[in-house]
Amino acid sequence: MPLFWKPYKSDVTQFIDSLKAKDPQLEARQREGRGLLWDKPIDRQAQAEYRAARVPQQPYVYQTKAD
User: How confident is the model at residue 35, as a pLDDT?
Assistant: First the structure.
């Protein structure tokens, strides 16, 4: 390794680092927004009912049923 070697940082990484430097609250607001959409408790009973109510798909979906 050369004496004056610097680790490579992509343009995208540099851009994100500059955004975080300009707005220190950015990451905290991102986490709050994520909490609104993703971090929800799961209703296991409802999930089981949804799975039980699934109708199997026919092999070729555009073909009419030949009953």
Answer: 84
* Gyration radius (Cα) of the chain, Å: 25
Between CA 48 and CA 46 the distance in angstroms is 5
**Count of domains for the chain:** 1
| Full domain range(s) for residue 24 | 11-42
Rounded to whole angstroms, how far apart are CA atoms 10 and 31?
24
In angstroms, rounded to a whole number, what is the distance separating the alpha carbons of residues 23 and 20? 5
* Two structure tokens written together for 5: 């070697």
pLDDT tens across 8-46, in order? 999 999 999 999 999 999 999 999 988 888 878 889 999
Residue 23 forms part of a structural domain: yes
What is the distance, to the nearest Å, from the Cα of residue 19 to the centroid of all Cα atoms in its chain?
A: 21
